[in-house]
Specification:
CATH superfamily of the largest domain: RRM (RNA recognition motif) domain
Keywords: Repeat, RNA-binding
CATH topology of the largest domain: Alpha-Beta Plaits
Strand content: 25-35%
Number of strands: 24
Domain RRM: 32-110, 120-197, 211-288, 314-391
Number of domains: 4
Protein name: Polyadenylate-binding protein 2
InterPro entries: Nucleotide-bd_a/b_plait_sf, PABP_1234, PABP_RRM1, RBD_domain_sf, RRM2_I_PABPs, RRM_dom, RRM_euk-type
Strand order of the largest sheet: 2-3-1-6
GO molecular function, one term: RNA binding
Shape: flat
Number of helices: 13
Largest sheet: 4 strands, antiparallel
DNA sequence: AATGAGCGC
């Protein structure tokens, strides 16, 4: 069972702090430092210590936490005094439940390049639900050294019937795929293949055959006949169109339909990126309208996420702003504390200040100093409110939490009237407020 | 049907 060779000489420490691979089997790793992942939120340092100290001499443990919130990041480290104990712990304690959740142990590897590369990573599906992490590990360990392995589970720990094994080499992964794909395990034929990210799978999907080709960035003078001539070299064309506006002016894109999908693919390969009349053509598979919308939406959401990641910790939310404060004035107010990279007063459609805005700094240090110094400061007529800007989801989560706090107060009668009915002279706004919230919660 | 997470003092 133990696959990690025992070291008889002291480990040689590499410059990065990880013990060098002195004498281990090829690709195997000799170290005293373990990474422990998939930790339940509430697992503590002492729980880690108590568990891991049972199988060897633990030097130190830690559950990693967010610096400001102290929330567990769901992983930690255990350091042993010798590599044999670390190897034994990995072998014996991997997948032990802690707070009812299986922990996943790996050697600590600070260099993220192996993880990021995804080399040797495989995906297994159609697994019998009775197969657990350990069984998966045992089944696949004969093909090579496993760095990490797990079964996808639901909240209760029940298998979802698929899982992942990361080997330390591509060869091991390939031989596992060759030997096990399609084999029966517990009477079920399992799928075993390389792990693919979503977009890589989409890429494979996009390689499905197509006849219709989209061409854009053509010059305004390019005609159907020009397209026919250029695209026609790659195969039989069934239709060509250059899209035009009401006046017949080219919109500089068009479609070419081929009889044979292989010809369409060849045309894309050969013509995409080529220059005609100084214009670099984009030539690709024509998308259905919904496909294009989906792609644009995904791209938009991606860039929004990147933008909000970029602002994480450097963007301040300001409210209680005097109406006279402009973007420029706001920037001026905050530029004492650092480099203001963007600045905006929120306005209604008529251009009136909404009394709130955002100021972004180039570093989190500047932002937190500005927050500390400017929050509550009198500006023109009133004290500023300054806080770290929240991302949309965070704000939604917070508001939701507030709503649920209010629920006991806002509770509607067990049989709620369809519409709020106000007795004459009743404080209508209060009623409306309460029912409005109740409805929102049950949306 | 299903394609994770992820490295410190």
């Amino acid at each position: 069972m133990a696959q990690i060779q025992v070291q008889h000489q002291p480990p040689v420490t590499a410059p990065n702090g990880v013990a060098a691979n002195a004498g281990g089997a090829p690709g195997q790793f000799v170290s005293t430092s373990l990474y422990v992942g998939d930790l339940d939120q509430n697992v503590t340092d002492s729980q880690l210590y108590d568990l891991f100290n049972q199988v060897g001499q633990v030097v130190s443990v830690r559950v990693c936490r967010d610096l400001s919130t102290r929330r567990s990041l769901g992983y930690g480290y255990v350091n042993y005094s010798n590599p044999q104990d670390a190897a034994r712990a990995l072998d014996v304690l991997n997948f032990t439940p802690l707070n009812n959740k299986s922990i996943r142990i790996m050697y600590s590897h600070r260099d993220p390049s192996i993880r990021k590369s995804g080399t040797g990573n495989i995906f297994i599906k159609n697994l019998d639900k009775a197969i657990d992490h350990k069984a998966l590990h045992d089944t696949f360990s004969s093909f090579g050294n496993i760095l990490s392995c797990k079964i996808a589970t639901d909240g209760t720990g029940q298998s979802k019937g698929y899982g992942f094994v990361q080997f330390d080499s591509e060869e091991a992964a390939q031989s596992a795929i060759d030997k096990l794909n399609g084999m029966l395990i517990n009477d079920k034929p399992v799928f075993v293949g390389h792990f693919l990210r979503k977009q890589e799978r989409d890429g494979a999907w996009n390689k499905t055959k197509f006849n219709n080709v989209y061409v854009k960035n053509i010059s305004e003078s390019t005609t159907e006949d020009d397209l026919k001539k250029i695209f026609g070299e790659h195969g039989q064309i069934t239709s060509v169109v250059v899209m035009r506006d009401g006046d017949g002016k080219s919109r500089c894109f068009g479609f070419v339909n081929f009889e044979d999908p292989d010809a369409a693919a060849k045309a894309v390969d050969n013509l995409n990126g080529k220059k005609f009349d100084e214009k670099e053509w984009y030539v690709g598979k024509a998308q259905k309208k919904y496909e294009r919308e989906l792609e644009l939406k995904e791209r938009f959401e991606q860039s929004m996420k990147e933008a909000s990641d970029k602002f994480q910790g450097v963007n301040l939310y300001i409210k209680n702003l005097d109406d006279s404060i402009s973007d420029e004035k706001l920037k001026e107010l905050f530029s004492d504390y650092g480099t203001v990279t963007s600045c905006k007063v929120m306005r209604d459609p008529d251009g009136n200040s909404r009394g709130s805005g955002f100021v972004a700094f180039s570093t989190t240090e500047e932002a937190s100093r500005a927050l500390a110094e400017m929050n509550g400061k009198m500006v023109v007529s009133k004290p500023l409110y300054v806080a770290l800007a929240q991302r949309k989801e965070e704000r939604r989560a917070r508001l939701q939490a507030q709503f649920s706090q209010m629920r006991p107060v806002a509770m509607a009668p067990s049989v709620a009237p369809r519409m709020p009915v106000y007795p004459p002279g009743a404080p209508g706004l209060g009623q409306q407020f309460l029912y409005g919230q109740g409805r929102h919660l049950h949306r």
